[in-house]
């Protein structure tokens, strides 16, 4: 998603909140503190009140956006810029692009990086990575199972493996 698409899809703060509610709760708000679905909306504050644990919460509680004063549009733009950068992105450049201070940009950058790390333990030392595509040849399939188009891995399942020498192995199917 590029910059123009971010602003077309999320022109207002409310659009960003609606998107997060759809992705996180799928239309059924859940209290992040007690996992209860027994809540009441507080539309003026864009929050919900949990009737079980008697706390208020919003969709950004427990996410990288929690306790931020930056608009969600800027957050979404920052995520887009960081993920689409081919040769990396500096906090100073992010600050210039978002029109925030370098310290704020650094915090945004670190929150995005923290969210991208699935496993909190990073591999160290010499790390080897490889990818492969799993699946049979199309010519060996029955006529009604054949998939049109593509060469190579087009009709195959990609698998990525990472090995830390004398350590752990991680393999994931995309």
Our Rg estimate from Cα atoms comes to: 22 Å
Give the biggest sheet: 3 strands, antiparallel
Task: State the end-to-end CA separation.
Answer: 19 Å
What best-fitting shape do the alpha-carbon axes yield? extended
| Main structural class | alpha+beta
Contiguous helical run count: 5
Summarize model confidence as the mean pLDDT. Answer: 85
The share of residues in extended strands comes to 15-25%
Instruction: Return residue spans where pLDDT drops below 50 for at least 5 consecutive residues.
Output: none
Portion of residues within helices: 25-40%
Task: Tell me the series of helices and strands, N- to C-terminal.
Answer: HHEEEHHHEEE
Biggest sheet, strands in spatial order? Answer: 1-2-3
Number of strands: 6
What does this structure look like?
By secondary structure, this protein is α+β, with helices and mostly antiparallel strands. It is 32% helix and 18% strand. It is built from 5 helices and 6 strands; from the N terminus they run ααβββαααβββ. It has a 3-stranded antiparallel sheet, with no helix packed on it. The chain has a 3-stranded antiparallel sheet with strand order 4-5-6, with no helix packed on it. β5 and β6 form a beta hairpin. α4 crosses α5. It is extended, with a radius of gyration of 22 Å. The two termini are 19 Å apart.
